[in-house]
Write a structure and sequence with these properties.
- The chain is built from six helices and three strands; from the N terminus they run H-H-E-H-E-E-H-H-H.
- By secondary structure, it is an alpha+beta fold.
- The longest helix is centred in the C-terminal third of the chain and has 19 residues.
């Protein structure tokens, strides 16, 4: 897909976010969604991913099942969308919106404590 401005990408991401059912979103609390152009080499290394594997998004924070009531997080959990890898795999705007939605849902699943193996079993791997 051709290059688009950060502003347009964020607008498309907002449309994708609006399509996620309220039944899911009503349980998501204190999670920021941000956009970066590319994942850093350090992040790819920490996730044990090769540099040439596209990373579309990542969840950072403490999953709900791992939280403690006596030790609340100081900062919000974050879902980071990686703009350039998303643009590289999408042919058009509609596909981009759909892929962003899938990526956000995938990362929200990590927020709920669902791991990669289970996501693959559910068809979201």
């Amino acid at each position: 897909m051709k290059k688009i401005s950060d502003r347009e990408f964020i607008r498309i991401a907002e449309l994708a976010l609006d399509r996620i059912p309220d039944e899911i979103m009503e349980y998501v609390r204190n999670v920021a969604i941000t956009v970066e152009d590319w994942p850093s080499p350090d992040l790819l290394e920490a996730l044990d991913l090769p540099a040439d594997e596209p990373l579309l998004g990542v969840y950072t924070g403490t999953a709900l099942p791992d939280r403690s009531l006596t030790w609340p997080a100081l900062y919000p959990d974050t879902i980071i969308l990686f703009k350039e890898p998303l643009l590289e795999i999408c042919r058009d705007r509609l596909e981009l919106e759909e892929e962003i939605e899938i990526t956000i849902v995938h990362e929200i699943a990590h927020y709920f404590g669902i791991d990669e193996e289970r996501l693959i079993e559910l068809g979201y791997g």
